[in-house]
Amino acid sequence: MKALAYEKAHPLDAFAIELVDVAEPRLRDTDLLVGIRAVGINPGEAAIRQLRSAEPGGRIILGWEFAGVVVAVGPEVTGFAVGDRVMGTGDVTRDGAWAERLAVDHRVVARIPDRLSFTDAASLPIGGLTAWEALFRDRGGLAADVERVLIVGGAGGVGTMAAQLLKSRTSAVVAATASRPESREWCLGMGADVVVDHTGNVPGQLRDAGIDRIDLVLSTAGTAGNVGWIAEILRPFGHLAAVDLSGPFELGPLVGKSVSLHTENVFSKITAGGDIAGQGRILAALAADVVADRLRPIATTVLDGLSADTMRTAHELAESGRTIGKTVITV
């Protein structure tokens, strides 16, 4: 089959992802074989491309956000059949979805409702799962002491899904950060009550908007550099959920307020253990919310065809830091 792959980690200006022939995926007993119809593109994949090289003689296939059709099922699969339309994240420890077909554990996917296109379905899994787990911890609602939430990076995929989930499932006041007029308008359209500029004085802007404290900050970008003002706006015993922490992090500013820190990695149930089937249940809930018009899919840029050219364009957008919503490539 055809897949987009590379061998050595590389920067964007030396883009080396190519369409190549690779062996068909080998199914495990709990796997589905999915014919890929669309893939969502994430900044994390661009970061992996810059850092991770294959073993000598090997290749890397990225892509962990997809929509497609089941073409085969393993002997221990339950709840799915050949022909089902599905969406999911795949498994970061295995080959990804930048290929004609993907082998994936059935517990981390969900069916796509008939009214939802493959393109729109592929825009939901990573942002929706990350936002859900960071905000709700699988409960489907906020902690009882959370009434005001700030989303740092409100126009990206995670931030966009977070705002919609908060407005559809909770009564929280939702503030978001955005630095450009178009991203500000997007955040307001997704449900944010207040939008402030994260390049300015965030605590001051919130106070001017009548918000003197925040109970929970969901930080999708720049957390390590913003910890000072995040600590300032959080109430004592408040909560910080961060999705971008990967290295040293200065906790000092948070300690004086006894802040609870929750890190979020959408693949931790797969890589570290946990209720792996929870992944599929959350995806099913997201799909149901779309059908009920409680959530909107977030595909804003759609590129046609899984090729080296479309993938390079998608990575240029991902690395720009200016993407609104989600970039999706149709296959």
TrEMBL record:
Annotated ranges, domain Enoyl reductase (ER): 10-329
Domain of life, per lineage: Bacteria
Pfam families per UniProt: ADH_N, ADH_zinc_N
Record protein name field: Zinc-binding alcohol dehydrogenase family protein
Species name: Amycolatopsis dongchuanensis
